[in-house]
Amino acid sequence: MSYRHTALVLLLGSTLALAAAGCGGEGEKESEGAKTACKAAALTKPTGLPAAFPVPGELTFTQAQKDGPTVVVDGYWTADLDEAYKEYKDEVEKAGYTVTSDEKEEDDAEINYKGSGKVGQIALKENCTEDGTTRVHVTNRPA
Fold it and tell me: What pTM was estimated for this model as a whole?
């Protein structure tokens, strides 16, 4: 076997070994990202959401921005994910919005809605460092 052939075989073998080492074992849990603080000062300016948009008492909005015609609002709900999901979904329907789809998983949930000439999504994540707190991310745009 020539030097070049031996070197190529060693290089390919090393590459395969590194690739195999990078693939986690069956028992390993996928990284879900670090938890971060959710509680911050309440927003003092208007959010840009429609007047009829539900903002229950457990919800505090902390940031709002406009990205073209889309309004994006972030905040937190002072309850765990299960309670936040159930209550916010109920509040969306009580406010006259239609829930077009929704999904609840172990550590996140989404509520898609339409109403007041708008469509959007309420995304809930259980990734706050504070116990009993759920991150809220609302995207609202023209229908």
Answer: 0.77
When computed from its CA atoms, the radius of gyration of the chain, rounded to whole angstroms, is: 23
Amino acid, single-letter form, for residue 15: T
Over residues 101-128, the pLDDT tens digits come to: 999 999 999 999 999 999 999 999 999 9
Asked if 89 and 116 touch (Cβ cutoff 8 Å), the reply is no
By residue range, what is the domain housing residue 90?
59-142
pLDDT value at residue 29: 41
Would you say 124 and 131 are in contact if contact means Cβ atoms under 8 Å apart? no
128, 36 Cβ separation under 8 angstroms: yes
Q: Which two structure tokens, joined as six digits, stand for 33?
A: 């990202």
Q: Residue 119: inside a domain, yes or no? A: yes
Alpha carbon of 111 to those of 20, 36, 122: distances in Å?
Answer: 39, 22, 5
Domain count, the chain: 1
Is 2 inside any structural domain?
no
Residue 15 sits at the vertex; the CA angle it makes with 25 and 21, to the nearest 5 degrees, is 15
